[in-house]
């Protein structure tokens, strides 16, 4: 009986580490993935929360892996105050670049907040997000989901952050804007070109 108990305990001890490796780790995928963005104003690096926001990160990586962001631009900057606002880039619904919309992952689900350097997916109604993205300058909790508010209170879907090259984002945010355009006074007079977007090893 004692020998059986010892063997059983040893078998359980061996099984526990294996069980802990299920999910992302078992598939050999780290919780985060990094993407380098080379632009006409310099390079920055994103760290994406693949484990926390799998749908939104998967969508962004499809645009990266299929090179759909190469040649697109940063086209919009919102400056509420110095170093506070956001910049926007993406495919702008170009028929040859845009992919189908994705299910919305609110910040209440992912736990990823709109802090300085956070990247999220631009949208109209929840579930309409495609291939346009925003990067925050300054902490912006107003873009997080807030179930206490009426109407559409699901916010934007945050899915990562800038970990290198935030100076490039600030430079884009401070660039001159044109008086007209879709977002009056917010469209960059000279859009900033994205040369390449590539995963890092």
From TrEMBL:
GO terms for molecular function: peptidyl-prolyl cis-trans isomerase activity. Residues 42-199 form the PPIase cyclophilin-type domain. Its EC number is 5.2.1.8. Keywords: Isomerase, Rotamase, Signal. It comes from the Bacteria. SUPFAM superfamilies: Cyclophilin-like. InterPro entries: Cyclophilin-like_dom_sf, Cyclophilin-type_PPIase_dom, E_coli_cyclophilin_A-like. PANTHER family: PEPTIDYL-PROLYL CIS-TRANS ISOMERASE CYP38, CHLOROPLASTIC. This is peptidylprolyl isomerase. The lineage of its organism: Bacteria, Pseudomonadati, Pseudomonadota, Alphaproteobacteria, Sphingomonadales.
């Amino acid at each position: 009986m004692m020998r059986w108990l010892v063997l059983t305990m040893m078998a359980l001890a061996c099984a526990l580490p294996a069980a802990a490796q299920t999910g992302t780790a078992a598939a050999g995928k780290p919780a985060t993935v990094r993407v380098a963005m080379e632009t006409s104003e310099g390079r920055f690096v994103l760290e994406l929360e693949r484990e926390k926001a799998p749908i939104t990160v998967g969508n962004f990586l499809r645009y990266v892996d299929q090179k759909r962001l190469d040649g697109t631009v940063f086209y919009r900057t919102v400056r509420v105050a110095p170093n506070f606002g956001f910049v926007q880039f993406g495919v702008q619904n170009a028929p040859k670049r845009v992919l189908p919309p994705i299910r919305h992952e609110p910040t209440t689900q992912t736990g990823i907040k709109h802090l300085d350097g956070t990247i999220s997916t631009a949208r109209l109604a929840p579930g309409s997000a495609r291939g346009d993205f925003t990067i925050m300058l300054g902490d912006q909790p107003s873009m997080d989901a807030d179930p206490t508010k009426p109407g559409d209170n699901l916010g934007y879907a945050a899915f990562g952050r800038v970990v290198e090259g935030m100076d490039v984002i600030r430079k884009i945010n401070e660039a001159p804007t044109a008086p007209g355009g879709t977002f009056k006074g917010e469209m960059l007079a000279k859009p900033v070109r994205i040369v390449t977007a590539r995963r890092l090893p």
